[in-house]
Amino acid sequence: MKKTTIFICVLLIFANQVPVFSQETFYHSKNGHFSFALPGGWIQIPDGILKEYIKTLRASSPLAAKAHYDAAFQKKNNEYYFASPRLLVKIDKKGRYDEEDVKRTSTAHETEKEMAKTARNLEKAYKGTIDSLNFGKFTYDEGKHALFMKTEGVTAKEGRIIAVTAVMLSDYGSVRLMFYSTADTFSENKIYFDRIINSFKFDKGHGY
Question: Is 116 left (phi over 0), alpha (psi -120 to 50) or beta?
Fold first, then answer.
């Protein structure tokens, strides 16, 4: 009886994780030549809504005059479009980046000991990608050819927001993935962000 109860509890724990992985779909960008897994319960924001968002953003501030995003995603049950958690995707086709320059950007203030620690953290893959990041500090993952940064800010609608940016280097430039979550739900939302980052891949011939 006791073993049966434990077995049922284990099944229930795994059942709670099913929506994230078993119901996921894959998003593919023909323009950017890349794809990633979209967790179960997430949807792509319609292009028309995204264009209106960009238009409003550009009009709101001179600093956002050239704002542009190629795609946007969020949880299906969000209260409104662009509510957190959400993901914005931006394709940059300005040409291939020099990896050594990228490394210098991310390690300018790191000692060799700190660099080694960062490398070990990022090797943890699924769990380590976001958990190993420090606020306001670039981290370069040589295996993924990706630059990561975690920041925070405050908005009138949602209060304190935590953002994670992943710049995935490619043969033509980069793809920027920008994740946003309210601070109080970040710990539960980062599983979605990690899944997208770790499933991201460029089409053959377009990786860095």
Answer: alpha
Distance CA 57, CA 67 (A): 7
143-189 residue pLDDT tens? 899 999 999 888 888 999 999 999 999 999 999 999 999 999 999 99
Protein fold of 25-202: Protein Transport Mog1p; Chain A (3.40.1000)
pTM metric for this prediction: 0.76
Please state whether the peptide bond connecting residue 85 to the residue before it is cis, i.e. omega within 30 degrees of 0. yes
**Which amino acid type is present at position 154?**
V
Single-letter amino acid, residue 6? I
Edge-to-edge strand list for the sheet holding 86-92: 42-44, 71-75, 86-92, 174-182, 159-169, 146-155, 139-141
Distances (CA, A) of 204 to 130, 170, 196, 198: 26, 11, 19, 17
Angle at 46 between CA 42 and CA 51, to 5 degrees: 130
DSSP 6-49: HHHHHHHHHHTTHHHHTT-EEEEETTTTEEEEE-TTEEEPPHHH
